[in-house]
Amino acid sequence: MKGSHDSSLVVLSVLIAIFASYGALTLNERLYHNGFIHPYYWVALASLTMGLGIWSMHFIGMTAYHVQAPMSYDWVLTIFSVIPAIVAAFIAFWFAYEQKRSPIQLIVASSVMGIGIATMHYIGMEAVVVEQGTVGYNYSGVVFSVLVAIIISLVALYILINQPEKMKGLNKAIIASLLGIGVASMHYTGMMATYFDLDESMAHMNHNGHDSIEILVISVTVSVICIVLFSIASTSFERQLEKRLEQYDHLTNLPNRKMFNQRLEGFERAQDLGLSVIHLHDLDTINHKYSYQTGDETIKVLVDQIKLAYRKNFSRRELLIYRISNKKIAVLVNEIDHKYKLENFSKELLNLSKTNMNYGLNISIGLSCKPTTTQSANQLVEQAYAVLNTKGEHLIGQYAMYTDSLHREGLRDRLVERLRLIDYERELVVKYQPKVVNQTFEVSGVEVLIRWEDEELGFIPPNQFIPAAEDTGAIHPITLWLIEHVCKQMNQWKECGIKFGKVAINLSNRTLSEKAFISDVKNIIEKHHINPHELEFEMTESSIIEDEEKALSTIQSLRELGVSTALDDFGTGFSSLTYLRRLPIDQVKIDKSFLDGITNDPIGRQFLIDVINLGKTLSLGVVVEGVEELEQLKIIEDTAASELQGFYFAKPMSSEELIKWYEQYYSKKFYNKV
């Protein structure tokens, strides 16, 4: 006996097949994107969508089929029949993803897929239970339906392999329609090969045997729709995620340089606009000595501090904070009194970073404002960078606003050009700043400082010309000239009967890495008959870390010559206890930043005392730099510090000024009155 079909349900079954095909093709596209969701996820979801679609189409088609006999379904076989459909779909999508171009492989894969679809169909048919009857097949029709399934699979795989990407909406809808109609055609071809052998007593009974399956069909259909909608949502989510990662920094979740440039362009017509560029110092040191994870966590702490300072000083709810490079964070301000607010923000941030920052990360801040420093929003970046580049390490722990003179002095190309023409004797100026013994305040030594007075550019601070000299290699001959100049000066002081104690000279990382430096120093000392114990060389932590092995070897060789060594600016760089203990140094110089606010800060005062005691525990001399106030002096006087240095005693002076100061200092017995 043959049955008949409900045309409306037939149409519904075809639509379900088309809808599932469209969703599966959408998922298939995601396989070829270098996205953040693994391809296995898209293969599995596409297979599940297509398999359930085929299965749902089959049973909707069965619901559409009417035969004059009561029918029911074996639930185990009904549910089991979905597996071949999902496996067949998986084979199709995985084969397409692997892009196997061999014709034989294509035929084999499409045959396996077609047989899988046909298997699903006929297992589903075996799940049909006809009371007092059986289900039979015209086997030639069965073979034909299997061939239809294989041909459909072959076409589907060919389409997937040759058009896996960039399917436009209309094109994809057409392909999905062809696939959906093709899958439905296989089902209805199979139904043509099916007949029902019924007992004559059942032939005229009304058919109502599909009721039990309708609930399942409805639930499966809803599931297919939900899966397709979920797949579309997943695709949309991944695209949004990719877009966000193109526009945001993944570590801090701050907008990146691209977003910053877009916002800056949007502010081109703004009347009041300010920019703060925050530069991160010593980040490489933290990554090298601790770990990159520690460096990342330190950056996150700084970002939280920036947000806190932003909310305290600016009224805008939207945080205009951007990570524009690995070591730079930008803050935009579009408010009235933006210059005043930017400066307050900078002070707030510096205070937060000094009190809460870990692992020695330091910052410097360059500021620029429209219309104060420029009329163009785009020039704000150039100006803020000029501040940072010009002031360099001397801006650490500070902020500065752009000025025209700063820009003029900060032209690196000009500095490099002038360095090639520098006349050491006429243009380089040597200054000396005394150090005194703690408590007795007797002069114990001087620190040598170098300045450059160029004929064209005028006075150039060391924080501008020394980095340029290091980059070009000019720093080494300048250092040798300085050492020889100081040795000559020491002999002149001796002739005058004046002894200033140890004379300290700063060394850069480039000098520490020079192979001939030790022999050059030895030759200069011997040439001018200088006692090596009267010389001291200072170097910063960062200069040692740049080429640690070579630097440590150079420092050790200097000590073997009899020269003292000191670690300068202690506390502004890495400052690891283990690292400090193994350095071949005689003295540490505590940076002046430790003295900021100690007169009103008991915690800061105790911290300074602990650091001094640490140096003493390691049998090192401890020099406290930056003493400028009597209140600071009174606090330090009661500590274990060895020596003091700062404007309270004397500013950097020429040799002639130093001699006059020395005579006045002792004639007035100033050191006993402090």
Automatic annotation (TrEMBL):
<feature type="transmembrane region" description="Helical">
    <location>
        <begin position="104"/>
        <end position="125"/>
    </location>
</feature>
<protein>
    <submittedName>
        <fullName>Diguanylate cyclase (GGDEF)-like protein</fullName>
    </submittedName>
</protein>
<dbReference type="InterPro" id="IPR001633">
    <property type="entry name" value="EAL_dom"/>
</dbReference>
<dbReference type="Pfam" id="PF00990">
    <property type="entry name" value="GGDEF"/>
</dbReference>
<feature type="transmembrane region" description="Helical">
    <location>
        <begin position="75"/>
        <end position="97"/>
    </location>
</feature>
<dbReference type="InterPro" id="IPR029787">
    <property type="entry name" value="Nucleotide_cyclase"/>
</dbReference>
<feature type="domain" description="EAL">
    <location>
        <begin position="412"/>
        <end position="666"/>
    </location>
</feature>
<feature type="transmembrane region" description="Helical">
    <location>
        <begin position="6"/>
        <end position="27"/>
    </location>
</feature>
<dbReference type="Pfam" id="PF03707">
    <property type="entry name" value="MHYT"/>
</dbReference>
<dbReference type="InterPro" id="IPR005330">
    <property type="entry name" value="MHYT_dom"/>
</dbReference>
<feature type="transmembrane region" description="Helical">
    <location>
        <begin position="173"/>
        <end position="195"/>
    </location>
</feature>
<dbReference type="InterPro" id="IPR043128">
    <property type="entry name" value="Rev_trsase/Diguanyl_cyclase"/>
</dbReference>
<feature type="transmembrane region" description="Helical">
    <location>
        <begin position="137"/>
        <end position="161"/>
    </location>
</feature>
<dbReference type="InterPro" id="IPR050706">
    <property type="entry name" value="Cyclic-di-GMP_PDE-like"/>
</dbReference>
<feature type="transmembrane region" description="Helical">
    <location>
        <begin position="215"/>
        <end position="237"/>
    </location>
</feature>
<feature type="domain" description="GGDEF">
    <location>
        <begin position="271"/>
        <end position="404"/>
    </location>
</feature>
<dbReference type="InterPro" id="IPR035919">
    <property type="entry name" value="EAL_sf"/>
</dbReference>
<dbReference type="InterPro" id="IPR000160">
    <property type="entry name" value="GGDEF_dom"/>
</dbReference>
<keyword id="KW-0812">Transmembrane</keyword>
<feature type="domain" description="MHYT">
    <location>
        <begin position="5"/>
        <end position="197"/>
    </location>
</feature>
<keyword id="KW-0472">Membrane</keyword>
<keyword id="KW-1133">Transmembrane helix</keyword>
<dbReference type="Pfam" id="PF00563">
    <property type="entry name" value="EAL"/>
</dbReference>
<feature type="transmembrane region" description="Helical">
    <location>
        <begin position="39"/>
        <end position="60"/>
    </location>
</feature>
